[in-house]
Amino acid sequence: MNLILTKPLKVCLFFCFLFRITFSEANNPPTAEFRGVWVASVTNIDWPSKRNLSVEELKKEALDIITMHEDMGMNTIILQVRPSGDAIYPSRHAPWSVYLTGKQGLAPPDSFDPLRFWVEECNKRNIELHAWINPFRASLHSSDSLHISHQARKHPEWIVEYNKRLYFDPGIEEVRQHIIEVIEELVSNYNIAAIHIDDYFYPYPVAGETFNDSGTYARWTGDKSSNSIHDWRRLNIDLFIKDAYDSIHKIKPWVKFGISPFGVWRNRGTDPRGSDSNAGVTSYDNLYANVVRWAELGWIDYVIPQIYWSTRDEAANFIKLAEWWNQNITTRHLYIGHGIYKINGTQEHWDNPDELREQINFTRSLDNVKGNAFYSHNHFKRENNNLNHLLGDSLYREAAIAPPMEWLNISVPKPVMNLKFRRGLITWEAPSGSSTLSKPKGYIVYITNEMGEEINHFVRGKAFKPESKNMPGRGRFDIEIAVIDDQNSVSERSEAIKIKF
User: Fold this and answer.
1) Distances (CA, A) of 309 to 168, 268, 312, 343, 359
2) Which of 95, 156, 309, 377 is 20 to 30 Å apart from 227, CA to CA?
């Protein structure tokens, strides 16, 4: 998406325009900031709360979650739609999820499509819905009764049993193509904002267990002399990621593709480019996910490393890891994932009531970090963690859009019309003749004082009332308005009007 800027703005470029505010950031949160929450369906962690709920109960729980996070200032929900080779939506490629109806392959009553409901309700509230899939996990238990339509039943040759769980073998080309078809179905059939994949590629290592894909490696016709089985596994995931990115953008160029990897790419003790950490597992060496390469080559649109440690952790320190990702993800969007499930639990170093505030404020100080995500929804419901107040009443008290991605280059909305200030109220009209993709979903109100200092606010309606809580003091101000469309593209600013407050 291209941002068209008026000439005076070109001097300060994109960062001044949206992501940094010249007045105190503490007093005016960013106008464009990713604010996401994971909603997990596997084992009924978040939604649905239990199996075999009625359609009305499923809808009520979904609406409660959406409303809660809308009120808290979130703009993105990352909903797990493929937990274990199954689906929470009607699919040609996977059976209905056991976590939905209690029996794999059993559809909800009344032809109810849960994903369509989620998408429609999120879109009504200008919340992005990111469809989260687990690509290679086939079943959490090898003893599970799988539906006849499950790919593990149809293609047992695709499956590796590991630690009493079933996994699709990423080294098999047909497996990778199957997952691509799953992604294509989602992108084609639903008005989602993104496809999201978390940290699970190859499984986490378990002592005494071997992921038995040696036969697949033996059949591989590539150069084994310069590619060990570990290099080959990384190559398999590379091929999958590149194909997924190309497939998504061939169907809908504006749909984003994001990855949420384990929080440590590599330790510096293993690789000089790695982070100052001593993690027992790394994304590159154990999960075979070379996410830094994917970002550098433009195969993904955003990265959310799961930095689920505290600012006082020694082996994997939040501050050091956030700085490392900030330095190494520079050409694609970087958001930081926070492990809020550790707050007020038994985890060491999480007894500091200001831990999460310190983490968010620190990430806001980093040039390349454009937002945050939280795992997971259910932990916002704890009465003693004060998260709703911390975010909704403080850090996220001002609404924000998800940051636009200029490289997607879809459309630019037209500017507003008839900007006026009358009887203490600033009003304007939406642009006419906008395309489907460039229809307004909100507006940025720019307020500039006589010293040239600027703040801005995101609003959803076509009016803004200057008040002491949203104005930077008293005096004379220039007011300009810009349109934000469904793809988070920002229009040229309107002509300024002058007001006295």
Assistant:
1) 30, 18, 8, 11, 10
2) 156
